[in-house]
């Protein structure tokens, strides 16, 4: 009996020692959690941190104060599916109403890190850390949450508690043997080791978080494109290293300055500013701007950043030097124009140039002689019409020459009429009838005359080709109209039409449905580039067997 009493006292002492050890481990665990909170508060690296945690069992999400899930990392999507836009308590907990002690709501109210333990819809236990997500303007409309699966730890704790209860019951009955105490001690030690491994694992995750944060900052500065964030007052709030290097300044010297002051060296906004368009439309925008100070073309894309009210408070800018691409495009435009002129010249030059020379020359000789007035008038008409035909050839030569892009106020009706004059002979000999329905008093657009001439010429030549291939004749109907702030030109043919699967590829470079040797596949892609650069759009509508309609839309000039 004395040995049993002594064994009991030893057991109690050992249990107390183990409990103190567990308390120390829990204190160490709490300290590691505190370090995790500090690391997770770094907003700038948040997105990359979330991506870095995708390969761990730690879940990260962003939830709005309306309980709607705004973002999940891969870990949470694997466990609960994609809940973006759904209520968090329904998707995660399988509940109809919010949790009674929601850490998210607590974090918004207390403005500090809150935590809680919850049981998920998958039956597992989770520890949830919630911290408010402060917007640049100081408002809070969402919370970032870190979700850690503590099922195994809870089970270990429950198992430890059960063993303690068993030992206490056995001590009370004095029926505990030395072997059973030893086994219980081994189980407690195993639980202690399991807790130690959990703490070591969490420490490793924290180190991974810190590593990923550093990698994110390095990656952001490694981007060669100029990346910056501008607020609604056009002031720069953040830049990457490439942006600062481009203007030979430190990032701290750029923050707070206006974009037009830094980038363009002006005191006000430049035309076609994509940031202004994003602020107005709340949608991404893209613009190409020529920077005369640097002598280069810049392509700027802007993506909106919204506040909790859905208002645009800033936009992310990505700026690229597209001078070389612009030069290649100009070269392709000239090449395509020359190819079009070559096709025209092959059908017209031989038919017109030699006869015109003779007609004009002999008519002038007749006019120089003494002939009756009625004959003189007829000869004068002949000479006039021959000279008009010569002017058409001259227009062809003018079209073939390279022109520096110059945007000015032009009338779409006039451009189309000139193109139809150039194609009049080919259309006549190929039995193609042209119907025009031009809107009267059509507003002008700001555009490059020769580039628009090339667009309409390319579309008309394509229509003629397919009508001739289909039935050796055809009808081309050209319509212009104004729709609000848009000028629309529709060119409809009665050719074979376009397959549905080809409609989405018509404007892809090198895509063509013509026979080998009949097309380069560049014409329509160049047309698309020209119209897009003019702020408009070009697209096609067709039903197989019922012809095709190409539609060009351009914005009405503000001037």
**DSSP strand content:** 15-25%
**Helical stretch tally:** 17
Overall average residue pLDDT: 78
Q: Output the strand order for the largest sheet.
A: 2-1-5-4-3
Question: Approximately how much helix is present in the residues?
Answer: 40-55%
Uncertain residue segments: 397-402, 516-521
Terminus-to-terminus distance: 109 Å
Shape: elongated
Instruction: Give the C-alpha Rg.
Output: 38 Å
- Give the total of beta strands: 17
Largest sheet: 5 strands, antiparallel
Class inferred from helices and paired strands = alpha+beta
Summarize the structure.
With 559 residues, this protein is of the alpha+beta class.
Summarize the structure in words.
The protein is α+β, with helices and mostly antiparallel strands and 559 residues long. The protein is built from 17 helices and 17 strands. The strands form four sheets. Strands 2-1-5-4-3 form a five-stranded antiparallel beta sheet, sandwiched between helices. A five-stranded antiparallel beta sheet has the order 7-6-10-9-8, with helices on both faces. The chain has a five-stranded mixed beta sheet with strand order 12-14-15-17-16. Strand 4 (125-134) and strand 5 (140-149) form a beta hairpin. The longest helix is centred in the middle third of the chain and has 45 residues, at 178-222. 24% of the residues are buried.
